[in-house]
Specification:
single chain; 184 residues; alpha+beta; Topoisomerase I, Chain A, domain 4; 4-stranded antiparallel sheet; 4 helices; elongated
């Protein structure tokens, strides 16, 4: 029984971390290298993460600057960004690639808030599924007479409390990201 609870905690933590990682890719009006760090560049015939062929920086709040480690890679990097369909048009001046972030409109901000709320709801579903799986393990142990009904009930209450805590954490993360997006 304790093993199921020990397994549940890291699973729920991984779900929260996955949500936070996904939220980094959501544009908030400020430039962030996380918006393009998932882009795969054709590096001499093999797909390679952009972070392994170039240095990504944000010199100001509205610009992402990409400095290729090999000048010949500027073209493939620019092509990869366009193909990734991240919603930005890179400008290549022959030495560096710059991506200028246009300001977000009010409608676009509202769309993004809807999108992050959906991401939050999906995370909550994952947490609830993890709760269900842990409860099934306990119910099976109770059925097999490995634990008593009282122990089973106590454990299920602990699982519910843990789930409630993590759902509240997801709500807090989403609220913070919503505030960040809606701030002009």
């Amino acid at each position: 029984m304790a093993d199921a609870f020990k397994d549940l905690t890291p699973l729920m933590e991984k779900s929260i971390q996955a949500l936070q990682k996904d939220l980094l890719k959501v544009r908030t009006g400020r430039a962030s290298t996380a918006l393009i760090d998932h882009v795969q560049v054709d590096y001499y015939g093999s797909k390679t993460p952009i972070t392994q062929v170039a240095n990504l920086t944000t010199p100001d709040a509205r610009t992402i600057q990409i400095v290729a480690w090999e000048p010949a890679m500027l073209g493939p990097i620019e092509k990869a960004i366009l193909e990734a369909n991240v919603g930005f048009t890179p400008q290549n001046d022959g030495k560096v690639i710059r991506i200028t972030m246009p300001p977000l409109t009010e409608d676009r901000r509202k769309e993004m808030v809807k999108m992050i709320k959906k991401m939050g709801e999906e995370s909550k579903i994952i947490l609830r599924n993890q709760r269900r799986d842990a409860n099934e393990v306990v119910k099976k142990q109770e059925k097999d007479k490995e634990i008593s009904a009282d122990e089973s009930k106590k454990f299920q209450e602990q699982v519910q409390k843990k789930t409630d805590d993590k759902v509240a954490e997801v709500d807090k993360i989403i609220a913070g990201k919503e505030k960040e997006i809606m701030t002009v």
